[in-house]
Amino acid sequence: MPTPSAPLPDDLAGLHDAVVGWFDDHARDLPWRGTPEVLPEPWPVLVSELMLQQTPVVRVLPVFEAWMERWPTPAALAAEPSSEAVRAWGRLGYPRRALRLHAAAVAITTEHDGRVPDDHVALLALPGVGEYTAAAVASFAFGQRHAVMDTNVRRVLARVVLGQAYPSTSVTASERRLAQALLPADDAHRWAAATMELGALVCTARAPRCDVCPVADRCRWLALGRPDHDGPPRRGQAWAGTDRQCRGRLLAVLRDATDPVPKAALDAVWEDGAQRERCLDALLDEGLAQVHLDGTFTL
């Protein structure tokens, strides 16, 4: 195992017990989660992981539940056109994720007999599945030992172990080595889920609740007096007037329509003509929209 670039906590077993014990008592009851005794089904885990990328749980829950009712298996989704996946994605944002999930369902159906593969390499080969998602599915759905590094986990490790307010903008090699070294020998998937939940509910980005943190007495950042972030400025994502907002407006028209939409209906929802045409061209190029011979548009 590569040596981590930061010293590990002295009582690593105590850290594991404190975080996982807190998780057992305070974890949210989410439909894609299992229990300490029973792992969840892999397909709901994969769907939830793609939906949760840059999207809060409260927005994902109703879409996830409707999705699973309609497409309880990869084969059920693969049997429908990809446009239906985009339509059902609703307003979750980043709708290319819907196309990727549909493509993954097709690959699972045709290449893996309809079952989400349990092999990390095979998971990585699925459309739309990157290093994080593959590790998360392998860990949560199959109980394997992987470092699952989403934003919440990275923030917990940065504060508790490194004494930093926030992790770096992107995952570094040293950060991966540290996360791997911190994994417990047994039930590493519970540690992964617990650190993720701790970051989501307690060790939050803007208002950490250190008074109720189960590892406050072990947190290096708290011991140092909660020093301010000294890295590059953290900027929130702009929305108003951006291409993302424009694309969302155009897709909303297509998603809500039962029949092909005339160009005028798209023109009406965004005033800047050059930006509107650029965004519409991008949607067509990405396969999120299609134009018909009569000049009308659909998903």
Explain what the structure shows:
With 299 residues, this protein is mainly alpha-helical. It has 15 helices and two strands. The chain has helices spanning 12-26, 42-51, 57-70, 74-78, 82-89, 96-111, 120-124, 131-142, 151-162, 173-182, 188-201, 220-223, 243-256, 263-267, 273-286, and strands spanning 290-291, 297-298. Helix 1 crosses helix 11 and helix 9 (151-162) packs across helix 11 (188-201). The protein is globular.
Order of helices and strands: HHHHHHHHHHHHHHHEE
Q: What is the percentage of strand-forming residues? A: under 5%
**Category from helices, strands and their pairing:** mainly alpha
User: Share of helix among residues?
Assistant: 40-55%
Q: How many strands, what sense, and barrel or not for the largest sheet?
A: 2 strands, antiparallel
Assign an overall shape.
globular
- Count of extended strands: 2
Brief descriptors of the model:
two-stranded antiparallel ribbon; single chain; 299 residues; mainly alpha; 53% helix
Secondary structure layout plus pairing:
Blueprint: H1 12-26, H2 42-51, H3 57-70, H4 74-78, H5 82-89, H6 96-111, H7 120-124, H8 131-142, H9 151-162, H10 173-182, H11 188-201, H12 220-223, H13 243-256, H14 263-267, H15 273-286, E1 290-291, E2 297-298
Antiparallel strand pairs: 1-2
